[in-house]
Amino acid sequence: MAIIKAETSSQAFVKSQTQKYSVLQSKNSNPDPDPDRNRKSGQVTNFLKKIVKLVDNRPSNANVDTCPVVCIGASAGGLEAFTQVLQHLSSNTGMAFVLIQHLDPAHPSMLTEILARLTEMPVGEIKTNQAVESNHIYIIPPNANLVILHGVLHLLPREDPPRIHLPIDYFMNSLAEDQGNRAIGVILSGTASDGTLGLKAIKAAGGITFVQDPGTAKYDGMPRHAIAGGDADFVLPPPEIAQELALLGRHSYLLISKTQLVDDKLLDDHDNMNRIFSLMRTAIGADFSYYKPNTLKRRIMRRMVLHNINGVPGYVKYLQHNPAEIKALAQDILIGVTSFFRDQETFEQLKGELFPNLIKNKTGNTPIRIWVPGCSTGEEAYSIAIALLEFFEEQGIHHPIQIFATDLNGSAIGKARSGIYPESIRQDLTPERLRRFFIKVNGSYQISKKVRDLCIFAEQNVIKDPPFSGLDLISCRNVLIYFGPVIQRKVIPIFHYALKPTGYLLLGTSESVGTFLDLFALADKKNKIYAKKATVTPLNFDFTTIGSGVSRLEEEKGMREPRVDYDVLQEADQLLLTQYVPASILVNDKLEILQFRGQTDAYLSHAPGVASFNLFKMTRPDLAIELHKTIHQADKEEHPVRKKALFIEGEYVDIAVFPLKDPAQEKIVF
Which domain holds residue 137? Predict the structure, then answer.
């Protein structure tokens, strides 16, 4: 009954908005001078959020057309680009095409009549509540926004100034949410950056994206922004885009409903799936085998479609001969959709309740330390930094701020460091925030230096790399939903370990700490804010890759790929991380130091004479005794051992020893 009520509510909302659209149209598209209508602009955005819940919870037998839906967006120079696509596009692709052109809101459009002469497919201007059909072309009318819900197109009123009109992003976001892997996005000629965020949403949902080669576009602003966004699968001239669409149209992946399970016969090939995980772990040092299975399978199938490969064995061979594809697959798995001040109510709660708690008992020079794991392209970290600055100004106080933002996706970290975002972020920010915390740069917005300086971005694997420590807040929103239970059980204790006794954990609205209620207390149910409990963190984690059971596959002929050498940015990441993780070392079974992490000079030093990396020759004598006992106990019990609050030379020291099995040499390291 809850689903039925939700759908009825959504349909009522669509009806009310389409009625409003009809009223506006009857007034000859004249702008409504009533300033109160600006308050309703958020309604449409909220409607898009509702679509996610409705589609994900839709009954499996819902009657939805299974044809892929292609959104083709353009602005200036769009007519020429549309013409080139349609002239080379088969009239029997099995797809539905929705054309979004930036149009003058005060004048009727002749686009439908012009394009109808170029194709045998039916071409029509969209009427609200219109179900999409394959081999049909639908064109948006002037002065409207467009969404799709359950395969039905709905016209909505255009948002009023000061919000910028971004009809391509608007519809592509809706299309991604409603159609998932059956969504295809195409960006053609135009100025500015409309469509950049829409392509990201489509790709994250498992869809496929095209961008016109900027060299063939009459106006290259939109294509260049879309390419810079990093989410274009194909960059081609319009005739070649048409040819690729025709090839994609009949692929089985695009015919799978968003609510259907991925083809079991195709992907439930455990041996080959494990080979893929092994190749990825060897090449990039990350183990994806414990991510959510359905997410993994859809991402792999998406890559197979892009390369016109129909079987997993063939894709394994392709990975073996094309190392760059391994990185591309990892990028696909790690892609996530984020935005500035996502869930505004949560940020209001941070400023109203949580930030005041963080500054209790802090002196003016004590920094607020925050970690944002899975930070993607940085919007969440920067939003928290801005919210803190606003809070400090409102309270007339000041504290140093340290925000550590990490992600496994090196490309995303690079974009986060630059702090440059498309013009369409205006949809998520107030004019005041844009003015105070951003600067305009070549048609984009860049985070101001005073905000960028508060955030340290680094490439890090939260599953295997040592965490930060002494943190006041961890914001890990909409990350756990991609992890399987094994990784979730590993990560939650790590967060508990990293927080101060008075620290907080912020999760996404659909996430929780699961069974770890002994570690965290729910402080805010609605916003998923958890307070750390005063209990000892269970020592059931280590900072190495989780054993996936596929390591033996790496030894098979042709399976092992050479590990990619670290580049300058990765080295910089490592330097940053060593400044803020707990002092730690890795030693072998002979107690020779293999690696230093963090600042260890307070505990280790080189002895005079012949150089040696023997642990006990480098350890302070008073610490060596306790360290020897702890290592001996961990070795004997083959279990982590921790000694807390050891009083050594006038200070308290904690020691934790983790025995690790080296599968290659069958030896214990610590």
Answer: 2-255
Residues 621 and 505 in one domain: no
Answer yes or no: do 526 and 588 share one domain: no
| Inside any domain, residue 126 | yes
200 & 100 share domain = yes
- Mean pLDDT over each residue of the chain, to the nearest integer: 79
Q: Which residue has the tokens 């190392």?
A: 323
Kindly state the tokens that stand for 293. 């299975």
Q: Is the previous residue joined to 162 through a cis bond, with omega within 30 degrees of 0?
A: yes
Instruction: Tell me the CB-side half-sphere exposure of residue 553, using CA atoms within 13 A.
Output: 19
Residues 115 and 24 both lie in one domain: yes
pLDDT of residue 546: 40
Residues of the chain with pLDDT under 50: 1-64, 258-259, 261-262, 543-567, 664
Letter string b/e over residues 642-665, b meaning 16 or more CB atoms within 10 A of that residue's CB: eeeebeeeeeebebbbbbeeeeee
Q: Are 442 and 191 in contact (CB under 8 A)?
A: no
End-to-end CA distance of the chain: 55
Q: Per the domain annotation, does 484 fall within a domain?
A: yes
SS3 594: strand
Q: Which residue has the tokens 């409102």?
A: 394
CATH number at residue 468: 3.40.50.150
What's the pLDDT tens digit per position in 426-482? 889 999 999 999 999 988 999 999 999 999 999 888 888 878 888 999 999 999 988
Side-chain-side CA neighbours of 38 within 13 Å: the count stands at: 10
pLDDT in tens, 600-638: 766 777 666 666 677 777 777 667 777 777 887 877 777
